[in-house]
Amino acid sequence: xxxxxxxxxxxxxxxxxxxxxxxxxxxxxxxxxxxxxxxxxxxxxxxxxxxxxxxxxxxxxxxxxxxxxxxxxxxxxxxxxxxxxxxxxxxxxxxxxxxxxxxxxxxxxxxxxxxxxxxxxxxxxxxxxxxxxxxxxxxxxxxxxxxxxxxxxxxxxxxxxxxxxxxxxxxxxxxxxxxxxxxxxxxxxxxxxxxxxxxxxxxxxxxxxxxxxxxxxxxxxxxxxxxxxxxxxxxxxxxxxxxxxxxxxxxxxxxxxxxxxxxxxxxxxxxxxxxxxxxxxxxxxxxxx
Length: 289
What we know:
alpha/beta; seven-stranded mixed β-sheet; three-stranded antiparallel β-sheet
């Protein structure tokens, strides 16, 4: 489907300079870009990682599968998003397998996404093999969701401690089950007037050939009905997609808005991680890249 990434997928890791704690919580970040643009070097993901490292976390920004704009179609979007979810699953298991080298507390791995990155996270966390769209089975068959990686990685699970979902959505809320929910903490951030990824339900970009998604409001309503309440939900009235992001200027002109989302993230992580442990790592104000 015209993947733009013929080379191995890579990541950049940011970590505190202070070495007082060997194993630290890890935050894996996934950029946005509609599966056709963007990279792990997106300004918002770099800013998140730098700030998280300053607060004592290890943070990585990762590559995932994308496609060429000329290949854009409903079928290719679904297949590319699925391959990106496979990439995320592989990344989680890679860091678990290599926790010693990177100094990771594997019980405190969190995911943070923007737009398509959040779409990847939701499907990686909740989609079962019997819920895969029919497009996955077309030639070439894409395989099971958590089947990528070498033999060592297959011995590790894809489970994490929680996720920050920024302006994301899911193909079907019925994929979300209570058993998986109760293993995690969640934070949802979305603009009510999002014109690209719907706040409730609809076609992304308001284009009929692009798949419909259930946005944050519908996801939260669904998990409320399941009796799950271990989540935060922040929604803004603005008619924006990414609350802080400006396509031309990056986060520069909206730094105050980015800082709002950063503080939401830090507060969420602080309460989601064992408090005694967090007190040891917070506010170290030093990082390396």
